């Protein structure tokens, strides 16, 4: 039986959405449930949405099924093809699929997007890339456009993704370009796990 102290501590962090505490916060299932909660009651028809990695093919398919018009980019053709397949399976509209990274999108792609989703904010990037990535996301969005995603915090130096990230770096890079609509603990961290925060940010 949990002690009163531990029960009180747990109750101080309300669930991000119903059932969140039973899911793996690093899974696609968790991300899709977060989007469903975040956009509940919102009409996403014709909302131009950029998915900046083929690793988020399921995210692309889910949002396409909600009416979003999807752009996706990835240098890996197999991952790009999977994103296309997910969009098609959800009877969605694919506005563009680019076999290049976010950094390589051409100028005419910039300023055309209403929404960007990214569930590995900063952690998938080497530290030297992060300021440029935040700038690029900001440049892709229309005025008032949104960035919705998950941000993981860890202070362990790693030689591969997910790399070490912290709140200071998030503020200095991402919040340089965005206002906060929502920024809160996504799931209380378990021993040995990274902390995960959910973010809905709006372009300044």
Automatic annotation (TrEMBL):
<dbReference type="GO" id="GO:0008757">
    <property type="term" value="F:S-adenosylmethionine-dependent methyltransferase activity"/>
</dbReference>
<dbReference type="GO" id="GO:0032259">
    <property type="term" value="P:methylation"/>
</dbReference>
<dbReference type="InterPro" id="IPR029063">
    <property type="entry name" value="SAM-dependent_MTases_sf"/>
</dbReference>
<keyword id="KW-0808">Transferase</keyword>
<dbReference type="InterPro" id="IPR008854">
    <property type="entry name" value="TPMT"/>
</dbReference>
<keyword id="KW-0175">Coiled coil</keyword>
<dbReference type="Pfam" id="PF05724">
    <property type="entry name" value="TPMT"/>
</dbReference>
<keyword id="KW-0489">Methyltransferase</keyword>
<keyword id="KW-0949">S-adenosyl-L-methionine</keyword>
<protein>
    <recommendedName>
        <fullName>Class I SAM-dependent methyltransferase</fullName>
    </recommendedName>
</protein>
<feature type="coiled-coil region">
    <location>
        <begin position="73"/>
        <end position="100"/>
    </location>
</feature>
């Amino acid at each position: 039986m949990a002690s009163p102290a531990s029960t009180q501590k747990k109750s101080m962090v309300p669930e991000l959405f119903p059932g969140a505490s039973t899911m793996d916060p690093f899974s696609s299932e968790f991300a899709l449930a977060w989007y469903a909660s975040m956009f509940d009651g919102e009409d996403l028809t014709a909302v131009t949405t950029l998915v900046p990695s083929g690793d988020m093919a399921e995210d692309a398919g889910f949002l396409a099924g909600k009416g979003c018009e999807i752009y996706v980019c990835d240098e890996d053709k197999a991952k790009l093809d999977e994103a296309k397949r997910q969009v098609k399976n959800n009877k969605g509209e694919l506005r563009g699929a680019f076999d290049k990274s976010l950094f390589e999108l051409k100028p005419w792609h910039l300023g055309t997007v209403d929404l960007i989703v990214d569930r590995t904010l900063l952690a998938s990037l080497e530290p030297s890339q992060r300021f440029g990535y935040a700038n690029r996301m900001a440049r892709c969005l229309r005025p008032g456009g949104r960035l919705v995603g998950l941000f993981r915090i860890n202070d362990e130096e790693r030689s591969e993704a997910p790399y070490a990230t912290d709140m200071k770096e998030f503020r200095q890079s991402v919040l340089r370009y965005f206002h906060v609509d929502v920024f809160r603990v996504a799931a209380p961290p378990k021993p040995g796990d990274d902390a995960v925060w959910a973010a809905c940010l709006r372009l300044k």
